[in-house]
Design a protein that fits this description.
mainly alpha, 133 residues, 0% strand
């Protein structure tokens, strides 16, 4: 199973729960679910597991309200929390998947020199650069 799949499942469960709570008239809980989506995507490791435990508590508490949409939302929130507690340590932090070590690229170095305001075609600086490498 792809490591990011449970992350997106947890986020979609929270979005569905937000819709259910919004429909039930529990707007503050719906907004909490939407904020939890951002937190699930931004956090990692133990902090994500703590968030999952808090979401389980919120889901169980919301399910006791009696409205059928709130019960459905509570089940979705609790399911997202269980997923985060169980697999939170293996889920990637968003934005961390594509980071790789940079290789030395002379063309990129020239562009960076221009951004710094240096003249990469200046022979004195080019000689200094080649002697430093």
């Amino acid at each position: 199973m792809n490591a990011s799949r449970p992350l997106w499942i947890a986020a979609l469960l929270l979005v569905g729960a937000a819709g259910a709570f919004w429909g039930a008239g529990f707007v503050p809980v719906a907004l909490l679910c939407l904020a939890a989506v951002a937190a699930v995507l931004a956090l990692s490791g133990a902090v994500r597991r703590i968030l999952g435990a808090l979401l389980i508590v919120v889901g169980i508490a919301a399910a006791f309200s009696g409205h059928w949409l709130a019960i459905a939302g509570g089940v979705l929130v609790a399911a997202s929390g269980v997923l985060q507690v169980a697999l939170g340590g293996r889920m990637p932090k968003i934005g961390m998947g594509g980071q790789k070590t940079r290789s030395h690229d002379p063309e990129t170095d020239l562009w960076r020199a221009l951004e710094r305001g240096d003249d990469p075609t200046d022979d004195e600086k080019a000689g200094e650069r080649s002697s430093n490498e």
